[in-house]
Structures are given as structure tokens and as C-alpha cells.
Design brief:
CATH topology of the largest domain in chain A: Rossmann fold
Low-confidence stretches of chain B: 1-11
Radius of gyration of chain A: 23 Å
Helix content of chain B: over 70%
Oligomer: heterodimer
CATH class of the largest domain in chain A: Alpha Beta
Number of helices of chain B: 11
Shape of chain A: globular
Largest interface: A-B, 50 and 43 residues
Low-confidence stretches of chain A: none
CATH architecture of the largest domain in chain A: 3-Layer(aba) Sandwich
Radius of gyration of chain B: 20 Å
CATH superfamily of the largest domain in chain A: P-loop containing nucleotide triphosphate hydrolases
Number of strands of chain B: 0
Chain lengths: ~325, ~280
């Protein structure tokens, strides 16, 4: 039986946000009698994560995903509740825990902007107190796996977002963490870069047996990576089960946009519902339980002069609406 | 592949612990000196100020009809101002602004959750960033001072004791700047505090007027304030060495460092529980 590496019980985090009315008078009155809005960013959540698990922790913007990660890594202090990460209390043992975990916050850089990644790696080797021989072996290994040999000596500001993200992840893995927290690692990336990052995450989990705690609001990340998914909304956990179950029940459709050379006259495909159309384009919502994307694409190529195709995942809001609908039933 | 072993916090060798702060200073040094043209152009401001001060003090001294005020000649005043300006501008960008930005942008998430002391991390960065600026400022500033007022002689004692005061002056400036930056844990914008602090440095820090030229009563007050103990003390000692003055300045520095160090440590430990990282 696997060991529990993350244990969260009745965790809460409340923020006080100062409210300010518009204009000079509003600003003056809020200075003398400040009014605060209390926000429950995380509302009484409990869950556990087993060693070697790849858990997707998903939800729309502002749902409480990042706040949860920041509490688990010791950056934020919870308002109440208990948590243990690798046996440490992150609020009390932040520095001790830091030797054993890694984190990547997709929207925030940790690499030095004007310097090449190798400078940041050398710095991290010292910060995590790695022995030179171990560091060299580890770096060589990661450079090869992440295919960043050509990027090592290029200043970070010259890297593309996808290249930078690969280098960011390497920075978080140098000290061989037992758990890695990935907060929106694919945000803003193009399809190819996303795929590359997903492969890397999969590799880490399967080959290196690293426990991965992944947050994302991209349904594609979850579908391809995680066996288990936790959905959080307004700070509350509304779903905690297998990704298979989530897909079967709530990620039932994909939106496919077809752009054609000539006007589309007759579109008739089982499971495909037209949701919008212009003279030269068509947006189709495909029920993936009834038909596959492959078949729809074959049908489109056979019947229309296709100029461009775009495939969109089910928006997170729709997945959440589906979960709420089921809970009400 | 062999297991990468990390030394646990508290059980590591002192060498390992020390080396991480050295490396942080080194990376900051390289990051700060990445663009030589920027570095040199930043020093140009020191030259412009020195030129203005030279004109101002030459006129003031000639109107007064004296060659020395408070024991300082025009050349000593200009060299002293060149040094205080060089020492202080070397710390740019201001640490308080960097911490404020760290809290606002959310990159605090990275700087807090690493196995090091947050305060020492910023101190190493502060020193690493300041070194290349300091040397370029002093080099260009000295050339300007030689051209404008000619060289002045200072002995090894003045340089060594001045360097000690400068090092402790940097530590003092670091703690005050850190405290201002840490207020970002509570207030939305720290720029007002930074503005007050820099104006305090300007008036009482010997950046535009050496404290030796102040009236006696004001000089005594200014010498007790932390502003004068950051960069003026070192500059004053280098242009006109006086051992008793060194001891007086050094003792004042130590008291302020101890005071602000304790306040900074307390504020960090209190503030970290209060932090709300922006952007989730």
C-alpha cells in the first residue's frame, strides 16, 4: 500500500480585501474608516495524496487552486485546519520541507531574466546544498530528458515561453524533490509546447516516481495526465474521483471549428451539433460518447475543402456546471 | 543514477550554508553587470551631480572668503559628496522597491519557499548587486573629481577604516530598506515610505551637504541619526581621517544595526503569517 504524502484536513484560508469607493472622497473615507471584504479562498477542504500519484487539482480562475498549493508549500498560512506534507507541517517547517519539494508557478518566473538558465541552476545547486558530483549527474540527466542542451547558455529573455517553461521545470527538479507542485504549467503555451510539457510531466511521474500535484484550468492537461482529479470551485471541493469518471460524466464534448475554402451547405454528422456558423466556417459541438474526433475530421476532409481546423476542450465552467447539475439531481 | 543527497537544514556543514549566500551574491553581481553600457550610464548621474556641487561649493567658499569650513576644503567636500553619491546610488534598484514588487507580482512564492534565510537571501543579493555599481561609480566619479577639483591625498588608515564604516553602512541601509519593503505585507504601496527614507538620506546622509558643514547643534543631531551612518561616515573618514570620529561613528552604526536588525527580524516573522500573494 502506498504511503500518504499529503494530508489535508478541514483546511481554510480567508483573505481580507480592502474595499475602496471610487473617487477622491471614496479614497479619503476608506483611509479613515476602512471596510474589508472577507473572502473564503479555501473553504473547509480535506483530501489525501498517495506517494507516486499524479493528481490534477482543477477549477476556474479564483477557485482556490493556487492558494491551496501556496499553503501546502508553506508560502501562505492557513486560517484554520491541518495539513502535513511528507510529515512536515508546511507552516512551521517551511525551510526543512523545501529540500524535498519542488514548485513551478506557470505565471511567475524563477529563472534570472538576464542570465542563462545554467547560472540559475548553479545557484540552486548551492541553495539546495547538492554535492558537485551529484549535481553534475542530475543536470546532465535532466538536460537530456528535457532537450534543453541548446538553451543552457542562452539568456532567459531570449527563450520562447515553451522553452522557458521546460527550463523552469528543470530548475525545480535539480534537488530531486519527492513531490512537485505544478501550478498552471501549460498556461499561455501553444499546442506543441503544451504537448511537450505534458510528456515531461508524465515521464517524471512514471519513470522517476515523483508525486505530482498539478493545477490547471485546461481540461486537456487533466485528460492526458491524471488518473485522479479533484475539482475545486469557490474554495470547496466539488469532485474528487477518477479522471475517467470525470471524463465520462462531465467532459462529454469537444468543440471543433472548421474553416473552409467554399461555403458549407450540408453538414450532417452523428453526434455533431452546429453551435455557430458563418459563410466559410462552422463551429460544431461533438458528443464524444457518440462519435470520435477522428471520424469527424475524416468526414470533414471528405466532404468540404478544409482550410483550417481548430479543436477546443470543454471549458472548465461547463464541466463545473455539469458537476453541480448532477449534485442537484 | 545515484540518489542526490541533500543535507538537511540544521545538519549541514557551515561551508555549505555559507556558500549558498556567496552564490546568491555572485548571481546578483552577474545579473547587475550583464550590461556594461547600462552600468556606465547609471554612473553618469554621479558625474553630473559632482559637477553641479563643484560649481556650487566653489562659489560658496569664495563668497565666505575661507579655505576650510568644518575642517573641509572645497576639494574634500567634492570628494566626500562624490563618495556618498557613489556609495548610495550603487544600491539601486532600491531593495524596498524590489520587495514591494516581489509581493505585488507574487514572485514571493519562489523567494520564500527555498531552504535559506529570507533575510540573508536579500542581504546577499543587495551586496552582490551593489558591488559592480560601486566600483564603476567610484572609478568614474574619481576621474570626474580629479578633473574638477584635483586629487586629494588619503592614507591607508583612512581607506581601511572608511571601508569598515562603508560595509556596516551598507548593512544599516539594508535593514532599513528591508523594513520598508516588508511593510508591503500590510500596506498596498510602500513608495511613500521609500520616498521619505530617500529624502532623509538626502538631507541628513551627506549626499548634498557634508554634515561637517552643518551648524554645531544640527551636526550633533545629524550624527546620531541613522541616515548619516550609512554613507557619510565612511566618506568623511576617507577625506579627513580621525580615529575618535571612527569610534564614534562605528558605535552609532552598531546600535542602529542592532535596533533595525531586530525590528526587521520581528517584522518578517510577523509579516510572513500575514502575507497574501497576489494573483491566486
Amino acid at each position: 500500500m502506498n504511503k500518504t504524502v499529503i494530508e489535508v484536513k478541514n483546511l481554510n484560508k480567508e483573505f481580507q480585501i480592502k474595499q475602496k469607493s471610487a473617487g477622491f472622497i471614496g479614497g479619503l473615507s476608506s483611509a479613515f474608516s476602512p471596510k474589508y471584504k472577507h473572502i473564503k479562498a479555501v473553504d473547509d477542504i480535506s483530501f489525501t495524496v498517495e506517494e507516486g500519484e499524479l493528481l490534477a487539482f482543477i477549477g476556474p480562475n479564483g477557485a482556490g487552486k493556487s492558494t491551496t498549493i501556496k499553503m501546502l508549500t508553506g508560502i501562505l498560512f492557513p486560517t484554520s485546519g491541518k495539513m502535513k506534507v511528507l510529515g512536515f507541517n508546511p507552516s512551521e517547517d517551511r525551510q526543512k520541507l523545501a529540500y524535498h519539494i519542488g514548485s513551478v508557478f506557470g505565471q511567475k518566473p524563477q529563472l534570472w531574466y538576464h542570465l542563462p538558465p545554467i547560472d540559475t541552476y548553479n545557484l540552486f545547486a548551492r541553495i539546495y546544498e547538492l554535492k558537485p558530483k551529484d549535481y553534475k549527474e542530475r543536470l546532465d540527466f535532466l538536460v537530456e530528458q528535457f532537450e534543453i542542451q541548446d538553451l543552457l547558455k542562452t539568456p532567459v529573455r531570449k527563450l520562447s515561453l515553451g522553452q522557458r517553461m521546460r527550463c523552469e521545470i528543470v530548475a525545480s527538479l535539480l534537488h530531486k524533490p519527492k513531490i512537485i507542485f505544478l501550478d498552471e504549467p501549460t498556461i499561455g503555451l501553444d499546442v506543441v509546447a503544451k504537448q511537450h510539457i505534458r510528456e515531461v510531466i508524465k515521464y517524471l511521474n512514471e519513470k522517476e516516481k515523483v508525486t505530482i500535484f498539478l493545477t490547471s484550468h485546461d481540461a486537456g492537461d487533466i485528460e492526458t495526465l491524471a488518473k485522479r482529479t479533484v475539482v475545486i470551485n469557490y474554495g470547496k471541493i466539488i469532485f474528487d474521483d477518477t479522471t475517467e469518471k470525470l471524463k465520462k460524466n462531465f467532459i462529454k464534448s469537444k468543440v471543433i471549428e472548421l474553416v473552409t475554402e467554399e461555403p458549407i451547405k450540408n453538414f450532417d454528422f452523428e453526434g455533431g451539433k452546429i453551435i455557430s456558423r458563418t459563410k466559410y466556417s462552422l463551429k460544431v459541438e461533438l458528443d464524444t460518447a457518440k462519435n470520435s474526433i477522428d471520424k469527424l475530421l475524416t468526414y470533414a476532409m471528405d466532404n468540404f475543402a478544409i482550410k483550417d481546423i481548430n479543436i477546443f476542450d470543454t471549458p472548465m465552467e461547463e464541466i463545473i456546471a455539469g458537476i453541480y447539475r448532477e449534485q442537484k439531481v | 543514477m545515484s540518489e542526490v543527497k541533500t543535507l538537511q537544514n540544521g545538519s549541514g556543514l557551515f561551508g555549505y550554508k555559507f556558500l549558498k549566500y556567496f552564490e546568491i551574491a555572485k548571481v546578483n553581481y552577474f545579473n547587475s553587470s550583464a550590461y556594461l553600457v547600462n552600468l556606465i550610464s547609471r554612473s553618469a548621474i554621479v558625474v553630473i551631480r559632482i559637477w553641479i556641487f563643484t560649481q556650487l561649493y566653489k562659489v560658496s567658499y569664495s563668497i565666505s572668503g575661507v579655505s576650510e569650513i568644518g575642517g573641509l576644503t572645497v576639494a574634500m567636500v567634492v570628494w566626500s559628496l562624490m563618495m556618498t553619491q557613489s556609495f548610495q546610488t550603487a544600491t539601486r534598484p532600491q531593495l524596498s522597491k524590489l520587495i514591494d514588487e516581489e509581493v505585488k507580482s507574487g514572485t514571493l512564492a519562489y523567494s520564500v519557499n527555498r531552504p535559506y534565510s529570507y533575510i540573508l537571501f536579500h542581504f546577499s543579493g543587495f551586496i552582490g548587486r551593489s558591488i559592480p555599481n560601486l566600483f564603476i561609480n567610484l572609478f568614474i566619479g574619481s576621474l570626474a573629481a580629479i578633473v574638477l577639483v584635483g586629487p586629494i591625498g588619503f592614507g591607508w588608515k583612512a581607506l581601511v577604516f572608511g571601508a569598515v564604516l562603508l560595509l556596516f553602512g551598507y548593512i544599516l541601509d539594508f535593514f532599513v530598506s528591508l523594513i520598508i519593503g516588508l511593510t508591503a505585507f500590510w500596506v498596498e504601496d510602500t513608495s511613500a515610505f521609500t520616498w521619505i527614507y530617500s529624502k532623509g538620506q538626502l538631507v541628513f546622509g551627506g549626499l548634498i551637504l557634508p554634515i561637517a558643514l552643518f551648524p554645531d547643534y544640527l551636526q550633533k543631531i545629524a550624527e546620531l541619526l541613522p541616515f548619516s551612518q550609512m554613507y557619510y561616515g565612511a566618506a568623511r573618514l576617507i577625506v579627513h581621517f580621525d580615529l575618535s570620529l571612527f569610534l564614534q561613528y562605528f558605535a552609532t552604526q552598531l546600535i542602529w544595526i542592532l535596533f533595525f536588525g531586530v525590528v526587521a527580524y520581528y517584522l518578517f516573522n510577523k509579516g510572513i503569517k500575514h502575507v497574501s500573494v497576489n494573483g491566486g
